[in-house]
Hints:
The structure holds two protein chains of two kinds. Chain A is an alpha/beta fold. Chain A is 25% helix and 30% strand. In chain A, strands 13-16-15-14-17-18 form a six-stranded antiparallel beta barrel. A five-stranded parallel β-sheet of chain A has the order 3-2-1-4-7, sandwiched between helices. A five-stranded mixed β-sheet of chain A has the order 9-8-12-11-10, with no helix packed on it. Chain B contains twelve helices and 14 strands. Chain B has helices at residues 14-20, 36-56, 69-86, 101-112, 130-136, 159-169, 188-191, 242-280, 307-316, 336-340, 345-348, 362-386, and strands at 2-3, 63-66, 92-96, 116-120, 141-145, 174-178, 197-201, 212-216, 285-286, 297-301, 319-320, 325-326, 332-333, 351-355. In chain B, the strands form four sheets. Chain B has a seven-stranded mixed β-sheet, with helices on both faces. A three-stranded antiparallel β-sheet of chain B has the order 9-10-14, covered by helices on one side. A two-stranded parallel ribbon of chain B has the order 1-11. Chains A and B meet through helix 2, strand 3 and helix 4 of A and helix 9, strand 13 and helix 12 of B.
Amino acid sequence: MTPSPTRVLVAMSGGVDSSVAAALLRDAGHDVTGVTLKLWGGDSDSGCCSAADVEDARRVAAQLDIPHYVFNFADEFDSRVVGPYVDAYADGRTPNPCVECNRSIKFGRLLERADALGFAAVATGHHARVRRDTGGSWQLLRGSDVAKDQSYVLYMLGQAELGRTLLPVGELTKAQVREHAARLRLRTAGKAESMDVCFITRGGREEFVTARAGTSPGTVVDGDGAVIDRHDGVTGFTIGQRRGVGVATGERRYVVDLDAATATVTLGRRDDLLRDAVELRDLCFVDGAPGPADRVDVQVRAHGATMEGRLDGTCVWFERPQARVAPGQVVALYDGDTLLGGGIAT
Amino acid sequence: MAYLDYAATTPMYPEAVAAMEPFLSDTFGNPSGAHAAARAAKTSLEEAREQIAAALGAEPSDIVLTGGGTEADNLAVKGAARAARDAGNGDGVVTTAFEHKGVLAPCERLARDGFRVTRAPVNAAGIVDLDALEAALDDRTVVVSVMLVNNEVGTIQPLADVAALVRARAPRAVLHTDAVQAVPWLDVTEAAASADLVSVSAHKFGGPKGVGALVRRGDVPIEPLIEGGGQEWGLRSGTANVAGAVGMAEALRVTARRRAEEVARIRPLRDRLAAGLVERVPGCFVNGDPTRKIVGNCHVGFPGVEAETLLVALDRDGVCAAAGSSCTSGATEPSHVLEAMGVPRDAALASIRLSLGYMSTGVDVDTALELIPRAVEQLRPAVSASR
Lengths: 346, 387
């Protein structure tokens, strides 16, 4: 954490992590201002930006005696997060909207606005740690609570962002965060965690996506091309998803391919999913790319285990074949606890 | 601190606070009761009603006390429309595109309930298009609602002209006006004389929050929204807010007494503020025809600056201003008023409302003229560099 007092804008979602982030920064002597982002104009049940969450953030800010504002980024959220999310599913990919929100909104629009207003840094409640190495470069490390680590969804942060980013709760375990909130009697101390995509309503993802993208029915085929079923749209499928049991063999079957252009879903055996490599786009590195000979730890899920691999150009080669990464998912590269960067699987 | 948000709310007149005090302590009776404590409250409530009626150019029996301006708007629009449809008089509702949400939302509700709702367009100056309004009227129109003063850009609507059209083209229609923003600046006994229903809200003119009134002339039929003990002529049940009514009456009295003087005092302050901003900030523009707005309103835009960001910078400097229309979350929503006036979205999102009132002084204007151009200048390079 930056040692000298500085003007910090804390993104407060109304949850416990960002509440404690604001408290820690205030108690460290920083000049702290809270902001809650209004991201979604539509209905939301699990929403990260419901009126009740804004009220929680406002009340915590009042308890901490810091100014609090609401920024309306609903237009940008729709064009840069929700729109691409829907397009991705319609195109047979499996997007990660939290990543795009971090990239475009929290560490995009918000950072830009914080700069304009003369804030030295933006803080969030993410579980990850920002460090400066002996050479003066910024590093992003996994959060102290490995089970809650969120460095994966921050893979896009580079030197320009990390130098202006504070992640105080990354130094704590989730239990310590809650204890701290309880000690300060913050009203969000016992609040449940949001697990779902914040803008998806009760009807679920498929209903949301088809309401915006429409449906294009097609067929479900076996590896040999034989039609075994019909479907209402590829948006309901994800690569790697288990899908019933083979009639002849009794083996479990998985979605091994999606072709949005022909609305074809291909099923196969688990072995059919295995790949030696994954090709990435939107590659970003915290502090330069690893060399093609460097062994890196590859993480393809928000909370999944890592596997060994190497990055050669835009392609990650796995040490041992791995189940295919659904296009649209983040592939983050680490050296132990240190994030190196990553990209989006194609 | 420079408080420039009188259109949002005003500080209470000390006279209104003092008038209310007994009703927050000793005189606590329920005016609907049948004993000495009740009678004391009832007497004060009815005296307040008489004062309110006199200040609004109505009879005491015309005054329906409500929980504020939005409730008065709801009662007028929904209440009159439903009563008229029940009587078989028609199903047409005509309003403008830039009414307050207190009118627009009830109109949307009525549209869902099967009424024909038309929102007449407004021109770039911020005045309702009378030709379009006239074209929307017919003999099945039951409610016409046109605000007296727009809450964002401050423009005064030609209510007498609207009334003439309504009487000629829609003989069955009830004319409602939302006069919430008008009271400090216009004598509504004249300005709203042609309307059958008039909404006012006490906190916009030095009275308490949470109390307002609907003037109902000539026993216009209205279906109540809130039913119960039959208070307020059966149109708004619930134990009367005696302190609120007394506070509103006193605030109206003070407002009426000081109005001419205040209009004369504030006009040059507002003009200096608007002219000073236009002069000091390159590209600064004014929204709403300056010759047709209340003297307390200064609505200006600064191209290249996001209003939401500017408000934070100004708040830090101690300048209280507003943009768009605030919703309960505190987020700034893009202004439907500016959109209706045809202001491009970028310009609308770069616009803020500065509104003056009875405590405003030349020092506030000086402060604003020093701090606003400076804040705009500081925000501009950062925004243009990143785009």
